[in-house]
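User:
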Amino acid sequence: MNRDSEKNINSFADAGLPSVAVVILNWNGLRFLEKFLPSVLNTTYGNVQVIVGDNASTDDSVQFVRKNYPDVQIICNEKNEGFARGYNLVLEKVKAEYFVLLNSDVEVSAGWLEPIISLMEKDTTIAACQPKILQYAHNTTFEYAGASGGWIDFAGYPFARGRLFEVCETDKGQYDDARPCFWASGAAMVVRSEIYKKLGGLDEYFFAHQEEIDFCWRLQNAGYQVYVQPASVVYHVGGGTLPKSNSRKTYLNYRNNLIMLAKNLPGINKLYIIPLRIMLDVVSAWRELLGGKPNHYVAIAKAHVHFTSWCFSGKKINGYKKIAPSKLAGRYKGLIIWDHFIKKRNRFSEIVQS
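Assistant: Predicted structure:
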């Protein structure tokens, strides 16, 4: 363990409150730490520690934190382990009742933690919860990665209250009720540490992208709830590591989505949902090619090849029970690609009735 990890990473200010560790996983995010770490350190919750987990950054991130915020603990991974394994390795060294997985490109308000912890303390079946996530650059607009709670459709396409594909709604308070959802955003997710460890944390094979959706699906299969608490608000830049135009991101999203379906769907549902999803992916791939993006066409094809390899890799996927998707919170029984692209519906409220 490096010298930063040897610091007392388990000291808390107020033992009368549940202990919370806000863990920021960083990789070459100096500009974000400079801009947003001060807001995290202004958190008013009385029993919180802030930790930076570093994925072998090659910029001056670690040196910046050491020099300017010596009270912030730093846990360094030996190499860039990606989002999933990176967090798992860091969180092995942290003791708290609640973990907060917080992106480095997120600005928080001083009292952002209290509404979430209060909600989770009142209902012990809530294992994970996210705040309302708005865009940093347009702070009255929902942000892509989570908005006001993540959902998923019949074929496994993720969307959110306030965001359908690339269309992000203006926040007018229309989704301000705390309620169950399918997945909580990895950009700002509060999770009970005991349950995180019990379920094995994030799936490290995913590396990055949709690992939080897989984790939340496993939570629901295990009998827990996932919630959004819009009384808490954060502001997310988004695309800080891999922009949406990056073909590597396309590859990970398509590959990981198929693996997630294979892992979490009951056997009978896999027989028709996965073939449907593959067919829709092929349509999407040709759309990318005809749209002048051959690199994304190749990325989707590569994702399918590697998904097939994964299926024959011997990875254990039947070690826990699977609940029928129709019984899970935050699942839409239709297809959002039909609703959005054919029926031209752009708002969550036009698809899912409260």
